[in-house]
């Protein structure tokens, strides 16, 4: 397996934000009269909001009211209430630096909005390192549809089998698989190894992957 590039997920991978996103969904739903359990929402983190909402409340979507306002309020809660308490994933910056030093083309693929991405990259302390991004505005359909990963592959101008995605949810694995990209998963997003079974390798967090870098698919590809 020869690699030229890495597609990076952000939430749950570079920043420990999945709980915060789930809490913001629960709070926004509740403010509009919908009682949705935290655990039910948490299990869907990594899925785009436009996909998550109708799965939780079938009569809602983010294009019509009240779903449109619920989705908007959720973003505001993340940015203004929960963001100050979100921490970077262990080793996030050091791993990004290592991949860039290794000559890998690194591009972001996230279902987040451009504003959310800006905030999360600062929290991850990689905003000065990563400038090539694809967000919800670059894809017609969000994860687990393959659109956002396909957009990242196209932006990088690389073949999908020459790239790997670093991510943390089963929805990332499904999205990448649909685009022909293999996934290295991290557990810091809160999903079990069973849920991440489609990944070619699983590590605790970016620091764990960095510690085992030379023997990981990233290091082995470089060595090959």
UniProtKB/TrEMBL annotation:
Keywords: Hydrolase. Signal peptide: none annotated. The keyword Hydrolase applies. SUPFAM superfamilies: HAD-like. The keyword Hydrolase applies. One of its GO terms (molecular function) is hydrolase activity. It holds the Pfam family HAD_2. PANTHER family: BLL8046 PROTEIN (PTHR43434:SF16), PHOSPHOGLYCOLATE PHOSPHATASE (PTHR43434). This is HAD family hydrolase. It comes from Leptolyngbya subtilissima DQ-A4.
């Amino acid at each position: 397996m020869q690699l030229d590039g890495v597609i990076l997920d952000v939430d749950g991978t570079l920043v420990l934000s999945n709980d915060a996103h789930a809490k913001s969904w629960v709070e926004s739903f509740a403010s509009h009269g919908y009682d949705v359990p935290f655990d039910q929402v948490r299990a869907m983190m990594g899925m785009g909001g436009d996909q998550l909402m109708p799965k939780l409340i079938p009569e809602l979507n983010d294009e019509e009211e009240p779903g449109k306002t619920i989705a908007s309020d959720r973003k505001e809660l993340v940015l203004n209430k929960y963001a100050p308490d979100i921490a970077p994933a262990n080793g996030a910056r050091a791993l990004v630096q290592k991949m860039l030093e290794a000559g890998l083309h690194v591009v972001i693929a996230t279902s987040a909005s451009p504003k959310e991405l800006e905030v999360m990259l600062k929290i991850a302390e990689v905003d000065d390192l990563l400038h090539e991004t694809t967000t919800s505005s670059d894809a017609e359909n969000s994860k687990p549809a393959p659109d956002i990963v396909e957009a990242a592959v196209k932006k990088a101008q690389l073949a999908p089998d020459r790239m790997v995605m670093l991510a943390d949810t089963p929805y990332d694995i499904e999205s990448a698989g649909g685009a022909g990209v293999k996934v290295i998963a991290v557990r810091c997003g809160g999903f079990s190894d069973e849920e991440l079974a489609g990944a070619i390798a699983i590590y605790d967090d970016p620091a764990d992957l960095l510690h085992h870098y030379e023997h990981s698919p990233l290091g082995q590809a470089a060595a090959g």
